[in-house]
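Thread: sanity check for a docking pose with zinc ion

Original post by kr_44:
Hi all, I'm comparing my docking run against an independent structure prediction. Below are the sequence and the ligand SMILES. Could someone generate the full complex and paste the structure tokens? I mainly care about where the ligand ends up relative to the chain.
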Amino acid sequence: MTILENVRVLHFHPGSVSGPTDIAIDGGKIVEVGRGLAARHPGAERLSPGGYVSPGLVCSHNHFYSALSRGLMVAIEPSKDFAQQLKNMWWLLDRAIDEGITRASGLAGAADAAMLGVTSVVDHHASPEFIDGSLDVLAEGFETVGLRGVLCYETTDRNGRDGARAGVRENERFARRVDDARKTGGDPLVEAAIGAHAPFTVDDETLSGLASACSSTGRGLHIHVAEDKFDAVDSRYRFGKDICVRLDEAGLLGPKTILGHGLYLTDSEVELVNARDSFIAHNARSNMNNCVGYNDKIGRYRNPVLGTDGIGSDMIEEAGFAFFKHHDSGGARWMDAFLEMLQNGNRLLERYFPGKRFGRVEAGYEADLTFWDYDPPTPLESGNVAGHVAFGMGSRMVSGTMVAGRFIVKDRKPVFDAAAIAQRGRDETRRLWQRMEERK
Ligand SMILES: [Zn+2]
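Reply from moderator J.T.:
Ran it for you. Here is the predicted complex with zinc ion included:
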């Protein structure tokens, strides 16, 4: 048993701040929160990290495969629209990814997330020239760092029928690997979803393959939808129906479904997504970066969550951008609405990790925690948490990250070999950029 002594508990949503208290952790879970716990458990390890302890931050949509595109020095053709941007940049990148680059990307992405106080990342992976086994290699990064995750492979038709089948197969195989680990008594940190790129690159045959993978594995679909208007128009032109109607008719909208973006979904699709209890991942920074527009319907979803869509894993910055973009576009919601979206990522985790509870510093919840070295010049109280996060707090104040009761960052120092991960990243990046040049 470990006892964190004399810390203040901070919940971002609903916002609350406690007085000094103790947190007892055993077997990866929080077992008790209250004063004087050390005296009652004399054999326990005692730690006094100081500052605030919050539930771990969750990134609900990310792409670690883009971790080595930071500072990219490959001449990318200019694009006139989002479809061209995918072709000229993102599909050039993912085609150049091989096993070594996948491994280095997973490690770099996981290390970055850990240092930013993120305890769980929902990832969407693509590497069309290295599909079979890619999720195992990506999972190595999560496991080495000690990060929790939900992984999938983005199945797509754009590399032919065989490529699409290989994508579905990789998703199913990885989900079975997780099930096997659990059957033999394991408690895997990394779960599986069933991934697909986007409706405009997935025909009806591939969609039905994805639907059977979801039902045979008991997982949900993780897919981009209507990130750009093109996807919504294509669905009505080629298939004669709205994207979400098409997904729903294939049996793919349910309580484990994760839809990325959704900027151009119609009002009736929003209702359908809500009726099916599915998640919608909002990625404001990415939408701004890709000039695709703004999801001004985000506040009308039952289960909105926040992702970075591959722009690192800084969830405090992401929540802040989501809030400022919302205000900039004339919206009236306050920062607490975006902290609620961040908090909702925990509900997504609960649907993928059976029997576990996430997102509160209370007995019975997983000990996935973020430690904050925050000493503000104005009072931090239960009523003004959102204002502190919007205008003062930042991930630079993260002093520790704990996943399943184990520190992966402690006293601002990584418990994993961050220097080796960074060096490997730089080495593989040179190869990645070279391979991108060769594929142009
Ligand atoms: Zn994405």
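Residues 61, 63, 124, 224, 260, 309 surround zinc ion (CB under 6 Å). Hope that helps with the comparison, let us know if your pose agrees.
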